[in-house]
Amino acid sequence: MSRKTLLIVLGLVALIAAGGIGYYFTSGSGQTAANGQGYEILPSDRVLGNSKSKTVLIEYAAPSCPVCAAFSAQSFPLLKAKYIDTGKIFYVFRVFPLRSDDGSAEKIARCLPEDKYFAFIDLLFKNQPKWDVEYGVQAPEGVHDGLVLLGRIAGMSREQVDQCMENKAEDERINKVSSDGEARYSITGTPTFILNGISIGSGNIPFDTISKLLDTELAKQH
Question: CA 19 to CA 170: how far, in whole Å?
């Protein structure tokens, strides 16, 4: 069985690092980025902000990662208000699965209309205790029931949620995004942030830290 298949079918063992820096797994082989900028925007990416901006921030996150949820609650609203909604940067969100449940959650999110995607990701983060094994939810039944519940909140039927989770084509896409992220940027934890093709770190990075890095990058554009 290939490594890509293992990412979704078997998942990966997540370990919380000291100080809450992120979730980690063993890295694999390397590969250079596809363009001179060190990043590539994919047609399948879920994005926010100004697509013409030369300052591009990519976040690799896992729906089941509590550190990702903390960043989403504490820093992302500030990031969105100051840099995304104002058109200063182009923001790209990519799921980097730590376990098979992350793949299932992402597949449900992808079944929703594109303009509902980020709202559902936020719903997943805010309701991790309802479906995440990190909070003692039993797998696979408890996790499945929790994801179905959230899917129903988003307006889907149980049957629709199950159909989405059975989408094998999405497995391939999710695995490729994960493998590419690991190979190009040596990602070892979530959330990991890539600014114009360069990793600026992992974990619940304070907004002030990200803000300074973004301001520095934006200044180069003038």
Answer: 34
